[in-house]
UniProtKB/TrEMBL annotation:
One of its GO terms (cellular component) is methionyl glutamyl tRNA synthetase complex. This is Probable glutamate--tRNA ligase, cytoplasmic. Residues 703-737, 787-830 are annotated as: Disordered. InterPro entries: aa-tRNA-synth_I_CS, Gln/Glu-tRNA_Ligase, Glu-tRNA-synth_arc/euk, Glu/Gln-tRNA-synth, Glu/Gln-tRNA-synth_Ib_cat-dom, Glu/Gln-tRNA-synth_Ib_codon-bd, Glu_tRNA_lig_a-bdl, Glutathione-S-Trfase_C_sf. PROSITE patterns: AA_TRNA_LIGASE_I, TRBD. One of its GO terms (molecular function) is tRNA binding. It catalyses: tRNA(Glu) + L-glutamate + ATP = L-glutamyl-tRNA(Glu) + AMP + diphosphate. Residues 718-730 have a biased composition (Low complexity). Residues 839-942 form the TRNA-binding domain. One of its GO terms (biological process) is glutamyl-tRNA aminoacylation.
Amino acid sequence: MSQLELVKLIIGKGNNYSALATAHYLILHNKITVEFKSDLNQPETFIEAFPQIKGSLSVTKFLARSYSKQQLYGYSLTIADFAVWGALKGCSGFQKLVNGNKEVGTHLRRWYDFVSSLDFVQKIVEEPKPGKKGKKAGDAPIADQGSFDIGLKDAKYGEVVTRFPPEPSGYLHIGHIKAALLNDYFAKHYGGKLLLRFDDTNPTKEKLEFQEAIQCDLTRMNIQWHKLSHSSDHFDKVYELALQLIKAGKAFVDDTEQQIMRDERMAGINSKNRDMSVEETLKRFQEMKDGTERGLRSCLRARIDMQAKNKTLCDPVIYRCNVEVPHIRTGTKWKMYPTYDFVCPVIDSIEGVTHALRTNEYRDRNVQYDWFLRALNLRYVNVWDFSRINFVYTLLSKRKLTWFVDQKLVSGWDDPRFPTIRGILRRGMTVDALRNYMVLIMHINNSLIKNFTKLMQGASQKDLMMGWEKIWALNKKVIDPISGRYCAINREKIVKVKLTTDLAPYTETKPLHKKNPDVGEKQTTYSSELYLEWDDAVTLEVDEEVTLMDWGNAIVRKIEWLNDSFIGLIHMELNLDGDFKKTKKKITWLSRRSPNKKDDHDLVKLRLHDYDYLITKKKLEEGDELKDFITKETEFVVEAFGDANLKSLKVGTIIQLERKGYYIVDEAYDHSKPDAGMKLICIPDGKESNMMSKAAEVVDTKVAPDTKTATQSKKEVSSSNSKTPSTNSKGGKNSIVDTDDFVHSIGMYRVNNLLGHIPPFDQSKISSMYKKDPLMDSSLVLHKVGKVETDTSKETDTSKPSKPSVKETAVVESSEGGEGKKKSKNAKPEAVVAKEGSVISKLDLVVGKIVDVKKHPDADSLYVEQIDVGEEKPREILSGLVKYMSEKEMKDKLVIVLKNLKPVAMRGIKSYGMVMCSSSDDHTKVEFLIPPNGSQPGDKVYFEGHEGEPEAQLNPKKKIFETVQVDFKTGQDLVAYWKDIPFRTKKGVIKTKSLKDAIIK
């Protein structure tokens, strides 16, 4: 059954009982708790079963949350909505109640009517049923399956006007582009207009260059606006409306200091100037306009409701003075400027906007938006909320991005590591992929469900923290069919090949894309002298048959190894009649000779750039210091040779380097500077392994090597089976030998292209599970990381060398004054135990007593506690426990404190530790861990068999606490455990009050 047929079945096209069963399955699949225990087709049983629906979790909990939330599951429509709606639509009992205007519940009725009103739902319901005259259901496609309405209120075709109002104070990033594309989508969808308006109300931040850059970026995104305007175009009108508010007694001038004003608004305290007369307010407002000394200290505030729970209504500022710099358009005409909160609804109404799309961070301000329109008797504007989009390891804060630019950690606002539009386009993102991802107007598999789910990504009301995998994978689908294929060979330790047949250099015409001839053609050069990449050459065996890509098979006849473990030359014999299907290795190659040059190749030098995220943490939390999470190395360069066809490419051309990946030309070949070569930037392909943070991977490996399973470790050793210690130019995710010393000696930056640098094993501490006997004897001894020495006491036969084995080097111990010793198979496992103990023992856990507790003045969810941990004075520790415990319940309690965390500021107050608690899976119940009877502040907590000295302060980059915390839990006996080892002090074990098998945080 197709998904379209399934939807039709769900909404009443088939047997209703089957629809209910299908609905029930889909609801469970979507984790919605609704059960239909009766056959709802019968009016009598429906009326009996109706309370189950009316009082179900889905309806009462999800629908009754607030008037603005229409859907069953979260904040966006899902298949669960269609399932329940279809069951009710096909249920005669429910229809009888609805048609008779009987009570079914306000929220249920509103939700049912909302789903019923959707255009595409109505079209499916109205389709002729099979067996009736006319077209059969399903014969004709639903009109424009990617173009159905998703709920713009009062939207009329041809009359919708949206607007995109960026502040010209920076470059657009991927978060802005979601807003721009959604506004563009709805304007086009309803045959309306999109307005571009620059909100230039803060002259301190604004620059003309940003206006030009924003227009350029929107044009690159194929976003066309009907009209361009500026907020400053309406300054005179906005000023008149401000006077109107004053004369109506709805605004006053206030010179209260900013911090005092902020505190008063939060506390609901009236300003000393709130009762200022209209005459005095007009006089003081004129002083603001003139820029007098008193006027510059003042602001104009709307007089709304200081007792409102929604603090945006507590007399917000609507005009403030700014004489720091002249305005970029009005110069020094104005000394005061309207705030965004005031100017936005006013100009939206004046310019004819019908639907204002705003991110849901402004949701609390929607009532304020409406108040200004009503107070000024302006035309009503519909406000439509959508979620902000955030990406892991990505900063969208303009202030933080500016810091990176100022610190010269990036090359500029178009740096490929930046989430700006020009940054991600420079890295190889396509406009089509961005549009498809954000607005998703393309059809996917012609499926209604997939289209709907896809569009809901654009319309979701819930803030999203997205991985980069999906958007880059979508980009790959766009570029793969149109990217020409070229060849490149890493220059590091490049290997020469000599064919047994002497061939004069010649060229043949080949397609750039074997599956798409429209991409074009290239000239491939052939000769008897070739280059191979080290990674390929080192795997070859004498008499092995391999395939040279775009040529044919060849047989390895001889490999000449040099004393320094390099390959001097490989002799190969062409076997063009060989079957390429039977060879295991397909190898890229380049000709060392060119028909255009007598003794040299015609290759181009390449610099292949790859990047890591700028920060090492997926999401910075409140209180995190940006500087603590900066990735040290974020740009990696590999030197390579490329085929001569690359010389004709222009900047911005996207290509595929065969067996390497997709790249975009960042610096084209300059024939006047051939040695400068070309710069290519690696385009992410969306594969999860390639999208991992390289820096975070290294940190995790350093901190907790003991957390790897035996299976993982075996894979790491066995997968390293190449012919030499890891001098792999790609690095490879299983490399276990550091080559930094070698790389430095040859003046090149070595890079692990996929997972970054993996630190070497500490041979003195690893267990026998990391050991594996070599397959053959070797004269190599690994003295230190990255340096390989050869025992020259034996003669070296260059035709048949003793080839170094990574399997062997992986198990050779550091030879300090003697030869390496293998660990016996019966080696004791104490090393692993000691390693685990050393990690958990780094935590400084102690008993503490809460001597004082009060609520944080600026954070409703936080307590500020004074906790005695046996030191000279109590520690100040912040905990998010407000909704779980009262201050009275916490006072004088003995608790467990982790005290060697790095101090973190939370809303202006530093926290010097963490209180350990058990928590239920759904986080609805939280309990303190309880020290044993007789405990005193300062008593040490330890784990038997893992004692040790804790670190003075945990390094947050090493994620030590995060590593061990995943194994914290309570048992059926209420004892707190790390793995299977109890938390304990010298006086006994530590427990929780009632939560069994609970997590400990």
